[in-house]
Amino acid sequence: MAGLKQLTALDAQFLAIETDRNYGxxxxxxxxxxxxxxxxxxTIGDLEQLILDRLHLVAPFTQRLVSVPxxxxxxxxxxxxxxxxxxxxxxxxxxxxxxxxQLADQVGxxxxxxxxxxxxxxxxxxxxxxxxxxxxxxxxxHHAAIDGMSGSxxxxxxxxxxxxxxxxxxxxxxxxxxxPGGRDLLTMWAKSIPRTPLNVIDRLATVVPHADLxxxxxxxxxxxxxxxxxxxxxxxxxxEEDQVIERPPIKAPRGPxxxxxxxxxxxxxxxxxxxxxKEVKNAFGVKVNDVVICLVAGAVRAHLIxxxxxxxxxxxxxxPVSVRTEEERGTFGNKISxxxxxxxxxxxxxxxxxxxxxxxxxxxxxxxxxxxxxxLRDLTAFVPPAVHARAARVVTQLAGRFTRPPWNVxxxxxxxxxxxxxxxxxxxxxxxxxxxxxxxxxxxxxxMSYRDSIxxxxxxxxxxxxxxxxxxxxxxxxxxxxxxxxRAA
Length: 489
Fold this sequence. Notes:
Layout: E1 4-6, H1 9-16, E2 25-33, H2 44-53, E3 63-66, E4 76-79, E5 89-93, H3 100-111, E6 122-128, E7 135-142, H4 148-158, H5 182-192, H6 196-207, H7 211-218, H8 223-236, E8 265-273, H9 274-284, H10 288-306, E9 315-322, E10 336-343, H11 350-370, H12 373-381, H13 385-398, E11 409-414, E12 422-423, E13 426-434, E14 443-450, E15 453-461, H14 469-488
Parallel strand pairs: 5-6, 9-11, 11-14
Antiparallel strand pairs: 1-4, 2-7, 2-13, 3-4, 6-7, 8-15, 9-10, 12-13, 14-15
Helix pairs in contact: 1-13, 6-12, 7-8, 9-10, 9-14, 10-11, 10-14
């Protein structure tokens, strides 16, 4: 059927974990200067018209979910024949003086509401009244529809390189078709059954040679020993390389940011200098990502010392990695993997923390590269959709209550443009990413480079981490110490 696209197991997982406390959407908070826009202002009409003109460039904006009866198969995206932009774009204003604290509070309230699954899973809020005459755009889009890189593609589609909006290609004229019913979806599922053995054989060919590696990536007990044994067998059979993937030998400590979530979110928002980060990178001979992770580790260490929660063992961090190929650009959905690495929250000296991270990230990258992305994808595809959804919910609810979390902190680095961008003529001044947390993993630090700065969005639970903004100042403090060490050297 025209306009029908099936979700993957990973896409569906972000739907499965969603509850009244665990939300599945990601987003961004853009700060705009409307003085460069026509008439010196940005209106809700301008917002809606720009999006309508470019809807054909952003498929998730017009697609809604269609579930297969009895969860026999993964859900589908289908063009919404009743799409109405008025349900997705809203306009509000902050009371005077419109401070950043007021903005963060309002963003937390809006973000702490689930998206309506009967419509395309996105919302944008135009927020007036910011001090200095600025306005903000708060966006929410479900993670089942986009990952970090496809989110950047949406940014590219909606923003321009000058105050004058560019001309975009006209839609190709493809019709979405009528909404399929339950019987239609069951028929499609039934027709796919004869192909299932062939699909299983094809996926087994990917998974079996790397079964031990995949189990190690998921942290299955005993997988390290199995991986070593299988590696020796591969070498004995003539394999060219010893492919062993191991999670870090430490486990994620219980406690920090690990309680079950409340329904309320809170955000830390700020920026650090990209030039200063590069100065540290060059002085120590490391990567920009190493410096960024070090800033997070130093800020988290200082925060946990202040709150009396610093464990003796290092925290464990998860770093998302895009595996989207050039051919997959514009397809949206999720094409991500992950690296797992310890964060040196147990190390006192900032320079030593950076050296620790540089070494551990090389190990994490080698382990990540040893496992083909298709192996993890195909391994999850063996789980029936109905079982997959229930298992995802159970695992999420157990984390932090009865089991150790798989990691403590998520640290994500999304590359952004080094040049000015404009939305309907209004100049973009900063873009703060907002992301996902879950039970047992209550801290997410996502950064996005833009022009000469690194914009930081820290997502946390309001009841667990009410002082989350101090982590922003902690990252700046860590950068100051690294700069001092670099210049002294």
